[in-house]
Write a structure and sequence with these properties.
The structure holds two protein chains of two kinds.
Chain A: E1 6-19, E2 22-35, E3 39-43, H1 50-58, E4 66-75, E5 78-79, H2 85-91, E6 96-99, H3 103-106, H4 113-125, H5 129-142, H6 148-151, H7 161-173, E7 179-183, H8 191-208, E8 211-216, H9 219-225, E9 228-233, E10 236-242, H10 243-248, H11 253-261, H12 302-306, E11 312-315, E12 318-320, H13 331-341, H14 343-350
Chain B: E1 7-22, E2 27-43, E3 47-51, H1 58-65, E4 73-78, E5 81-82, H2 88-97, E6 98-101, H3 115-126, H4 129-132, H5 137-150, H6 167-179, E7 185-189, H7 197-214, E8 217-222, H8 225-231, E9 234-239, E10 242-248, H9 249-254, H10 259-267, H11 307-311, E11 317-318, E12 326-327
Classes of the chains: A alpha/beta, B alpha/beta.
C-alpha cells in the first residue's frame, strides 16, 4: 500500500466481448488511479464502457462472452486480474463493494432488507446471526433510515426508491470496504433525494476513510463531488484530470462539447450548442480517433481519421487523448494565440 | 368571454382521484388524490413547463387532459371545447389536435411496425371517410417522408424497424408521429430524460425549431429544471398533486418564492466548480399519497413551517400586483 496514497490503480485495462457479430472492444487501454479516501469519477454517455470498467474491477464481467484481455488492476498491492475466484470472493463485497443504479432490481424481493444485509455481514465477517442482526440495525441507522428496528423487517417493495438506495448503501458499507464503486447511484432518483444520497456517501466516506469510484453520466454531480475525473468516450479515457481544472478549462473537444451542450440554470440561450452525430457502437468504431466524425477539429484532419491519439500528459496532472490538445511547453505561446484567434483557430493551424 | 381566445388550454380546479379498493368486495377504502385542484392556462404558441418529482401528479394531469383517465372534478377547456364533457366526435377532434411525446423512446414505439407505419398510423385512425381518398397510401408515405426529414431523419428510414435506431433517433420518430396530424398542441412527457447528454441538446433544439416553424403550443412535463428553463415560457411547479408555484420562466428562476421550488433549484448539481459544497441538504422524502399531510402538503419538509402551515391549506395566490407570479405558501 505504498504507491503514493493510491488505493486502486488500473493500468492499460482492456475488456472485450467476443460475440457472434465480432469482437466488441468495450474497454480499451484504460488507466487511472483512485486515491485513498478520494473520489474518482468516470463520466461518459451510455455505452462508453464505464460500467464494464467497474465490472472488470469487481471481476464480474460475464465470461464468456466477456474477457479481460490485458491490463492490471492493482488494489491494496494485489493484482486483481491474477487472483482466483476464491480469493476474489474474499475481496468482493468485503474490501470492494458496489452499489447499482436500480435499487429495486438489485435487492431480492422475497427477503426482508434486514436478512439481506445480515447475510453479507455473516459471510464476510464471520459473525453469528444475532450479532449480524444487531449490526444490520446499526447500519440502517447510520444510513439515515428512521425506525431501523421496524424497517429492518420490511421487504424492498415497502420502501421508496431513496430508502432502497440507502439499504443498498448500508449493505455495501456494512463490511467497511476500502473502495466503494457506485454505478449511477442516483440516476433513478429524484433530485432532492439524489442530493441526500450523495451527501450520505460523502459522510460515510469521511467516517470510514473509504475511497469512492463514482460512475455517472451527470457532469453536475461530477463537478460537485469528485476529486479526479476520467472522461470516457467509445471505450477509452479521452481526458483525465483533477476535477476543478477539468471544468474550468476542458481540453478534449468531446469534454468541451459536452459541457457546452448542457442546459444550465441562469443561462438563457436561444439554442443549445450540440455535438453532432451519435455515439458509435462498439462493433462499429470509426478508424483513428473515435471522436473524429463528431469533432469540429478532427472531421477533416488526416491524422485524426487514421491514427488514434494516446492519452498523454499535457499539463501538470492533466492527460488528454487528442492530437490537438495544447502542449504544455508551448503554454505561454498558446495563450497568446488563443487570445488572438480563439481556441480552434490556433488548433487548426497547428498541423 | 373576452380574453379567453388567447388561451388555447384552460384547466380549472382539476381533480383526479384514484380509488383504493380492498377486500373481497373491492370496497373503496380511500382515495389517492393524484391531482388535487390544479389550475393553469396555456397561451396559444407558448410553452408551459410542468415540473415536479416523481409521483407529484404531473403525468396524471396530462393523461386527464386527454381523458385517458377520468377526471373526478374540474373543468378543462381546449380551443373553446369543454374536454371533460365532450362527446365522442368532439373527443376525437381533441385527440387529433393534442399530440403526445413520451419519455421512453423504447417502450413507445411498436417493435413490429416499420417507421412508416408508426408515423403514418395516426393518419389512418383519424381520417374521416370523406378524407380517406385524399389520405391514400401514396399521400401517407409522402407525408411521413417529409416529416422524417423535418425531424432530422432520412426518408430512406421509412421501411426500417425501431430496433435499428438509437435512443435519440427513436425519440425523433416519436416526434414525427406527434406532428403527423398537424396538432395545435403537443404534450411532452419527459421527452429527453431517457437520452444521453449530447443527444438531449439535439432533441431540445429540434423541439424548439418545430415550435417556431409550426407555432405549436407545448405542455412540457419534466423533472429537470435546467431543461425546463431552456424550453419553457412559463413554469408550474407541482408537489403532491397541487401547483405550489407558477410564474414566467424568468421570474421563477430569478425569484423563486416557494421553499419547495427553492429546494428543487438548489438540489440540481451544477457544473460550475464554484458551486462545490455550497448546497444545503434538503431533508425528508415525499410523503405517501394515501395519507397526505394536513394543511400545506410540504410542511413536514419545509424549513419555514409554522402551526398555520400544518392546519390550513395555503391558496395559490398572486404575489405582487400584475406579476402573474402565483405561489401557495403562508410564509410568502
Amino acid at each position: 500500500m505504498s504507491n503514493n496514497g493510491k488505493l486502486l490503480s488500473v493500468e492499460n485495462l482492456s475488456t472485450h466481448f467476443f460475440t457472434e457479430q465480432g469482437v466488441a472492444k468495450a474497454v480499451q487501454n484504460v488507466s487511472f488511479s483512485v486515491k485513498k479516501g478520494g473520489t474518482f469519477a468516470l463520466v461518459g454517455e451510455s455505452g462508453c464502457g464505464k460500467s464494464v470498467t467497474a465490472l472488470s474491477i469487481m471481476r464480474l464481467v460475464p465470461e464468456p462472452p466477456g474477457k479481460i484481455v490485458s491490463g492490471e488492476i492493482i488494489f491494496e498491492g494485489r493484482n486483481l486480474t491474477a487472483l482466483g475466484e476464491k480469493q476474489m470472493r474474499r475481496i468482493r463485497g468485503n474490501r470492494i463493494a458496489m452499489i447499482f443504479q436500480e435499487p429495486m432490481t438489485s435487492l431480492n424481493p422475497v427477503f426482508t432488507v434486514g436478512s439481506q444485509i445480515a447475510e453479507a455481514i455473516r459471510l464476510h465477517q464471520g459473525k453469528n446471526a444475532r450479532r449480524a442482526w444487531a449490526d444490520t440495525v446499526e447500519m440502517l441507522r447510520k444510513v439515515g433510515i428512521a425506525d431501523p428496528q421496524q424497517r429492518v423487517r420490511e421487504y424492498p417493495h415497502q420502501m421508496s426508491g431513496g430508502m432502497q438506495q440507502r439499504v443498498m448503501i448500508a449493505m455495501a458499507v456494512s463490511c467497511e470496504p476500502s473502495l466503494l464503486i457506485a454505478d449511477e447511484p442516483t440516476t433513478a432518483l429524484d433530485v432532492t433525494i439524489q442530493a441526500q444520497i450523495l451527501d450520505l456517501l460523502e459522510q460515510l466516506q469521511q467516517q470510514n476513510g473509504m475511497s469512492i469510484l463514482l460512475i455517472t453520466h451527470d457532469l453536475g454531480i461530477v463537478a460537485e463531488r469528485a476529486d479526479d475525473v476520467g472522461v470516457m468516450y467509445a471505450s477509452r479515457i479521452v481526458e483525465l484530470s483533477e476535477a476543478t481544472a477539468l471544468f474550468t478549462e476542458p481540453l478534449h473537444p468531446y469534454t468541451q462539447g459536452l459541457l457546452k451542450s448542457l442546459p444550465r440554470l441562469g443561462l438563457c440561450e436561444r439554442r443549445l450548442p450540440t455535438i453532432s452525430g451519435m455515439v458509435p457502437e462498439p462493433l462499429d468504431f470509426p478508424a483513428g480517433c473515435k471522436f473524429h466524425p463528431r469533432c469540429p477539429i478532427g472531421l477533416d484532419d488526416k491524422r485524426c481519421q487514421s491514427v488514434e491519439p494516446q492519452l498523454r500528459e499535457v499539463r501538470q496532472g492533466r492527460c488528454v487523448a487528442c492530437w490537438y490538445a495544447p502542449d504544455y511547453e508551448s503554454d505561454a505561446e498558446y495563450k497568446e494565440y488563443e487570445s488572438k484567434y480563439g481556441r480552434h483557430k490556433r488548433l487548426s493551424t497547428d498541423s | 368571454m373576452a380574453g379567453t381566445n388567447d388561451y388555447l388550454l384552460t384547466v380549472d380546479n382539476l381533480k383526479t382521484y384514484f380509488a383504493i379498493r380492498k377486500g373481497l368486495l373491492r370496497r373503496t377504502v380511500g382515495y389517492i388524490k393524484a391531482v388535487d385542484g390544479v389550475s393553469f392556462k396555456v397561451r396559444s404558441g407558448r410553452v408551459l413547463g410542468l415540473v415536479g418529482e416523481s409521483g407529484c401528479g404531473k403525468t396524471t394531469v396530462a393523461r386527464t387532459l386527454l381523458r385517458l383517465v377520468p377526471a373526478t372534478a374540474g373543468r378543462v377547456v381546449f380551443d373553446q371545447t369543454d374536454v371533460l364533457s365532450a362527446n365522442k366526435p368532439e373527443l376525437r377532434r381533441i385527440r387529433r389536435e393534442i399530440s403526445l411525446i413520451f419519455q421512453d423512446p423504447y417502450g413507445s414505439l411498436n417493435p413490429r411496425m416499420t417507421v412508416g407505419d408508426i408515423v403514418g398510423e395516426p393518419l389512418k385512425i383519424h381520417s374521416s371517410a370523406a378524407r380517406q381518398a385524399v389520405r391514400s397510401r401514396a399521400y401517407k408515405m409522402q407525408r411521413v417522408a417529409t416529416l422524417l426529414s423535418k425531424v432530422g431523419l432520412s426518408p430512406e428510414h421509412i421501411n426500417r424497424y425501431p430496433h435499428e435506431f438509437s435512443g435519440g433517433q427513436r425519440q425523433r420518430i416519436g416526434i414525427a408521429r406527434a406532428l403527423v396530424l398537424e396538432p395545435k398542441m403537443i404534450i411532452c412527457d419527459e421527452p429527453v430524460s431517457a437520452l444521453d447528454v449530447s443527444i438531449q441538446s439535439q432533441i431540445l433544439n429540434l423541439l424548439k425549431d418545430l415550435q417556431d416553424e409550426f407555432g405549436l403550443t407545448f405542455v412540457f412535463i419534466a423533472h429537470d429544471l435546467a431543461v425546463v428553463q431552456f424550453f419553457c415560457d412559463a413554469v408550474a411547479v407541482m408537489y403532491m398533486g397541487r401547483i405550489v408555484e407558477q410564474a414566467d420562466s424568468e421570474q421563477l428562476y430569478q425569484n423563486a418564492l416557494h421553499p419547495y421550488t427553492q429546494a428543487l433549484l438548489s438540489a440540481i448539481p451544477q457544473v460550475a466548480p464554484a458551486h462545490r459544497g455550497q448546497r444545503e441538504a434538503f431533508g425528508g422524502e415525499v410523503p405517501s399519497a394515501v395519507t397526505p399531510p394536513s394543511g400545506c402538503r410540504f410542511h413536514p419538509r419545509c424549513p419555514l413551517a409554522e402551526t398555520k402551515c400544518r392546519r390550513e391549506v395555503p391558496p395559490l395566490q398572486e404575489k405582487g400586483p400584475k406579476t402573474g407570479h402565483l405561489v401557495a405558501c403562508w410564509q410568502r
